[in-house]
Amino acid sequence: MRSIVVISIGGSIVVPKTGIDVEYLKKFRATINELIKQKRRFVIVVGGGHTARAYQQAASSIVKLNPEDVDWIGIHSTRLNGHLLRALFRDVALHRVVKDPTKPVRWTEPVLIAAGWKPGWSTDYVAVRLAHKFKAQQIINLTNIDAVYDKDPSRFDDAEPYDVLSWSDFRKLVGDKWSPGMNAPFDPIASKLAQKWGMEVTIAAGKDLKNLKNILTGKKFKGTRIG
To answer: What class has domain 3-226?
Structure first.
């Protein structure tokens, strides 16, 4: 029986300000295909990245955006990125992008791609719901930071990374509210649900694919394990 891993990949990893990172996607595809050969299955949930922010900023420069419209622009950006990934994994993935984590899914392929659901819920939340649905053993959040720090490492030179955090301590750092485009290592609402269901989430740098393999093979890795 293949073990299931859920990967929540930040949209800024896939689509940074410079545009779609084709070289990264080539390496990400090769890494996942290599890990599939090791009897693993993957649920990959992707965020909106710079695509979402570009559209949101364009609209807000013309009119005052309703918060729900900000959210919907972000959601559809995640779906566009999801279809990009599904096309890249066409030969090993479910034929459609999953958008609603509460609906039944008949999934037998090695890879399932998922994206945003509806206003008020992040792709991290979708990842937690799908992990629960498929009884996944692991959630890995690939983001633009390499660990959870005690303070913002971009502002404080003495910021220290955590190797391990309890959910209660992590939630003290990120609070209890989520908003579209929020810059947090893992969505506070998703964190609350993950804590309730006794899940473990690893925060790690999305660009470091060797580190991802280390996480999945039980080797020493850089990142923060929350649980």
So the answer is: alpha beta
| Mean pLDDT in order along the chain per 10 residues (227 residues) | 88 94 97 94 95 94 93 96 98 97 95 95 94 92 92 86 93 76 78 93 96 93 95
The domains of the chain are located at: 3-226
Q: What is the pLDDT of residue 132?
A: 96
Per-residue pLDDT tens for 74-99? 999 999 999 999 999 999 999 999 99
**Torsion from C-alpha of 126, 58, 205, 210, nearest 10 degrees:** 90
Contact by Cβ (8 Å): 213, 35? yes
Cβ proximity of 44 and 111 under 8 Å: yes
Of the candidates 129, 119, 138, 106, the residue with the CA atom closest to the CA atom of residue 4: 138
Q: Are 167 and 145 in contact (CB under 8 A)?
A: no
Which residues lie below 8 Å from residue 145, measured CB to CB, with a gap of 6+?
Answer: 153, 185, 203, 205
Strands (E), the chain: 3-9, 40-46, 111-114, 138-143, 148-149, 161-162, 164-165, 201-205, 224-226
Which residues contact residue 52 at a Cβ distance below 8 angstroms, ignoring those fewer than 6 apart?
Answer: 11, 73, 74, 77, 78, 180, 181
Helix (H) or strand (E) holding 132: helix 123-133
